[in-house]
Design a protein that fits this description.
Helix content is 74%, strand content 0%. The chain has helices at 7-37, 42-70, 72-96, 99-126, 133-147, 150-156, 171-190, 208-215, 224-245, 247-253, 265-280, 287-307, 310-324, 327-336, 343-352, 356-370, 373-376, 380-392. The two termini are 27 Å apart. It is mostly helical.
């Protein structure tokens, strides 16, 4: 499909990427709320984020099978229906003041996100030329990340205690959100999104080189660059979730006024990186080179967060976020390249890598409990060093 022919589909996809960010951004508000209202520890509170990402491991592969059976559009609509159910359970958990039910609601929300992510990320990747895939995902990613701080601010509008959100304030905004998800599900079904296929996905495709390479394999796990890419996404999503979802908690630890306002630091930083990607990729910068540069920036930002004191440290999280910006847009085209008929299975494997959002954030919470939140950010060093390896070597392996 030519560039000028997928503007309308991109507009519809933009709403869906916004939804993913909005739903995940809820956690950045719920973590500190639950710590106060239910008297849970930091590790327990961050289990809420873990429950959101656990479904990526469980449902990542089934999501690919569903896409193969009913197509991208119906899978997207199914995801929005699950989102509506999840926020209904959130309302029940707030009324019951039950941490266990909160975890269940987050799990259902994560399942919805799994099916939606498995559909929209490969769709954007193969909607146009491979060399400009990172540019398209950068546009979608900027919309996604700007949605993260919108949800806490939206819920704060309903707060009854001078802007301080409590469990009692959650029911009204969540009912509004349920209505929006129902509407989005209907929009997904009637939207003008054509069913697309990657190069070589059909056995009789014209791109015989891709087809022959993919046909020589008997399993999706025989593509080293794909498997290593899934591991890279594991580390990336865990670290990015920490970067995006912990600033309100960090600001409260530092006793800074209006801590919810600090949640904008990282989305703005990531958006700056996305804008640069939109401008520079692929004309001036390849998606591979962008991944290499961003890996270095993220490592520098992590070091500054750990070393610098107080408010300087929290702003340094923005440098980490800037480094994260063009990683996700680069992973998908690099990891899905040359998969041919295994493209949908490959997409499922990459989606399963999002389980890193569960594992690494819970470890972050554990380190915070036994040490200091500033030092907890050092867990991201491991993530960014591995991503640096993938940027220079891992994506080339065949």
């Amino acid at each position: 499909m030519k560039e000028n022919k997928f503007i309308v589909p991109m507009v519809f996809l933009a709403f869906m990427f916004f939804t993913c960010g909005f739903a995940l951004g809820i956690n950045s508000l719920l973590v500190p709320v639950l710590k106060v209202s239910l008297s849970v520890s930091s590790m327990e509170a961050y289990m809420l984020i873990g429950a959101t990402f656990l479904p990526f491991l469980i449902f990542g592969y089934p999501a690919g099978l569903l896409i193969s059976k009913i197509g991208y559009k119906r899978t997207m609509a199914s995801a929005f229906a699950m989102f509506a159910i999840a926020f209904g359970v959130f309302i029940l958990s707030a009324e019951a003041k039950s941490f266990v039910i909160f975890l269940l609601a987050s799990f259902i929300c994560g399942a919805a996100n799994t099916f939606l992510q498995a559909a929209i990320n490969p769709y954007v990747t193969i909607l146009g030329p491979t060399e400009s895939a990172a540019k398209r995902i950068s546009i979608m990613g900027m919309i996604n990340k700007l949605a993260w701080p919108v949800s806490p601010l939206f819920i704060a509008l309903f707060a009854s205690n001078g802007g301080s959100v409590s469990l009692e304030d959650l029911s009204k905004p969540f009912l509004v959100i349920i209505g929006l998800f129902v509407i989005l599900g209907i929009v997904a079904l009637i939207s003008p999104l054509p069913e697309v296929k990657a190069a070589g996905e059909d056995n009789d495709a014209a791109d015989s080189e891709v087809s022959s390479y993919a046909n020589s394999k008997s399993s999706v796990f025989q593509f080293p660059h794909l498997v290593l890419g899934a591991i890279a996404i594991f580390f990336y999503v865990g670290s990015e979730t920490i970067v995006l979802g912990t600033l309100i908690d960090y600001a409260q630890e530092l006793s800074l006024p209006h801590p919810e306002t600090y949640s904008w630091i990282t989305p703005i930083s990531i958006s700056i990186g996305y804008i640069l990607g939109i401008i520079l990729i692929p004309k001036y910068l390849s998606q591979t080179k962008a991944l290499q540069i961003c890996s270095f920036v993220a490592l520098v930002g992590t070091a500054l967060v750990v070393v610098l004191p107080g408010v300087y440290s929290i702003y340094s999280v923005g440098i980490m976020a800037l480094g994260c910006s063009l990683m996700w847009p680069a992973f998908w085209p690099l990891a899905l390249m040359d998969l041919g008929k295994y493209t949908k299975q490959g997409s499922s494997l990459l989606t399963m890598g999002l389980i890193g959002g569960a594992v690494i954030t819970v470890l972050f919470g554990l380190i915070k409990d036994i040490s200091d939140i500033r030092y907890a950010y050092s867990i991201c060093f491991i993530s960014f060093i591995y991503i640096l390896f993938y940027a220079f070597k891992g994506h080339k392996l065949r």
